[in-house]
Amino acid sequence: MKLYQLIENNQELKLNDMEISSVTDNTKKVEKDCIFVCVKGGSFDGHTAAAEMLEKGAALVVTERDLGLGDKQFIVENSRKYYGEICAAWFDHPERKMKFIGVTGTNGKTTITNVIKHILMKNGIKTGLIGTIQNEIGDEIIHTENTTPMAFDYMRLLDKMYKAGCKYVIMEVSSFGLAQYRIGPTHFDIGVFTNLTQDHLDYHKTMENYYQAKKMMFDVCDMAIINTDDEYGKRLFGEISCNKKSYGNEREADCRFDEAQISSGGTSFQYCCGEKSYSVSMRMPGMFNVSNVTAVIAAVSETGVPIEKILAPISKYNGVKGRCEIIPTNRDFTVICDYAHTPDAIENVLKSVKEYTKNRLICLFGCGGNRDAKKRPLMAQAAAKYADRLVITSDNPRDEIPEAIIDDILGGLEGSEIPFDVVVDRCKAIHHSLKIAQKGDIIVLAGKGHEDYQVLPGNEHIHFDEREIVSEGLKLI
Question: Is the pLDDT of residue 434 over 70?
Fold first, then answer.
């Protein structure tokens, strides 16, 4: 691709137009006649390597300041943001060729995006999905490392989606993806805000920073669907200027749910919008899923799909892997696997499951290492609020000592009378929870959800699928 095609506002360029071989912000991927974008990260600043990258053959470096590199430097205000834009140009702007629905918030993103994709596909609309569990191009499944891919990978994925015939892209939009401008110049036809609770403060430092990162999506959005049951949602609704609708349980909401009936086998409720009310039935349990599906209906309605063609696919949808997923046991107790890894998420899932628990509710959970340590005691407090017994164990300890993480968790149980067991090894902890289960109990395995691996100290990745571990554990009791 030609240099002047990539650098659209090229009046400041002093180089003649030339063929560019690639674009990158990674020093290891620099090649002859490429463009290297200097991005400052948490531990490395690409500006410090700019001269070296030119020596390696780069045709041009994009910088945020004058590095004394003459006509080989192009200065921009925000090089990280500019990298997203130049990646979009490299793939001939696939973000301009499809419609986008973005979902952001702390909890609920995966369920909402997956249900929306399911509805559109059932209505004959080929759809791409970008999310935590996996990326999808129609029925094709693609492995993912990040909820929101890095800028170049993101645009390459969009290009594949467009060439495969996708009309819509449904995506989870993480706070990292927004704050780091990974989505480039993507514009959203519809944006959904679910809620905001404590998470990722190891990166954002404060809840205000976290909120402002999420809010960025609604600067590039035509229609916002916002959960005004959430305090941050109410604030967001009052601060943004795009078209917007509120959703939730409150009567003032533009789209609301009412008369919810919840059981382990499924849920029914009334979806109310204006003067109209519709009966909704679904196989996914939980009041949080009532809220999620209300957002789904409100969002898909904006695409022009008739309401009856929205409700029918919802009624037959089995749910998302690792989101309040029932693991078969053929025993007189129930095991549920859920990704809940924040205080609010664990409280929501336990509160919902408690409503149909016939005997005891047992919650097994841990907290990830190298992540926000402040939420660890809050996780314990949230779990103790609805569970009858806790099994405290590891999640992904990463580079931290698992016992030290558990000590932080236990700080939240000071003064609590809830019985708990500590079993550091998560596999043994799951087997232990199965051994202590009684008739009518429900065991919630919180934190891992869809993940089929565990990250141990030393960055050791091991295969770890809780469905397999439950199956093995059942053979031991």
Answer: yes
Contacts of 302 (CB under 8 A, 6+ apart): 189, 190, 223, 225
For the stretch 296-355, pLDDT in tens is 999 999 999 999 999 999 999 988 888 888 898 999 999 999 999 999 889 989 998 998
DSSP character string of 422-447: E-SSHHHHHHHHHHH--TT-EEEEES
Classify 334 as helix, strand or coil: strand
What is each CA distance from 200 to 106, 214, 277, in whole angstroms?
Answer: 9, 12, 38
β-pair type (266-273, 255-263)? antiparallel
For residues 246 and 377, membership in a common domain is answered with no
- What three-state secondary structure class fits 365? strand
pLDDT at 199 > cutoff 70: no
CB atoms within 10 A of CB 422: 14
The domain containing residue 416 runs over which residues?
A: 325-474
In percent, how much of the chain has pLDDT > 90?
81
Q: Residue 324 has what pLDDT?
A: 85
Structure tokens at 120: 């559109």
**For residue 209, what are its two tokens?**
């920073």
Amino acid at 91: F
Output the pLDDT for position 201.
63
Integer CA distances (angstroms), 109 to 51, 132, 156, 282, 360, in order: 42, 9, 22, 18, 29
pLDDT, averaged across the chain: 93
- Helices in 123-273 by DSSP H: which ranges? 151-163, 175-179, 201-204, 207-215, 231-239
Torsion of CA 58, 62, 68, 72, to 10 degrees: 40
Q: Identify whether 347 is part of a domain.
A: yes
- What is the CATH number for 418? 3.90.190.20
**Based on the domain organization, do 48 and 143 belong to the same domain?**
no
Domain end point (choices 62, 90, 118): 90
The answer to whether 156 touches 164, Cβ cutoff 8 Å, is: no
Distance of CA 26 to the CA centre of its chain: 25
Cα–chain-centroid distance for residue 350? 20
pLDDT exceeds cutoff 80 at 9: no
Q: What is the mean pLDDT of residues 91-107?
A: 96
User: Exposed, middle or buried, 161 (CB in 10 Å: 0-12/13-18/19+)?
Assistant: buried
User: Taking 70 as the threshold, does the pLDDT of residue 204 lie above it?
Assistant: no
Q: Letter for the amino acid at 250?
A: E
Instruction: Name the nearest CA neighbour of 226 among 271, 261, 192.
Output: 192
Q: Is 209 found in the same domain as 121? A: yes
Distance from C-alpha of 131 to C-alpha of 145, rounded to nearest angstrom = 10
Q: Is residue 320 part of a domain?
A: no
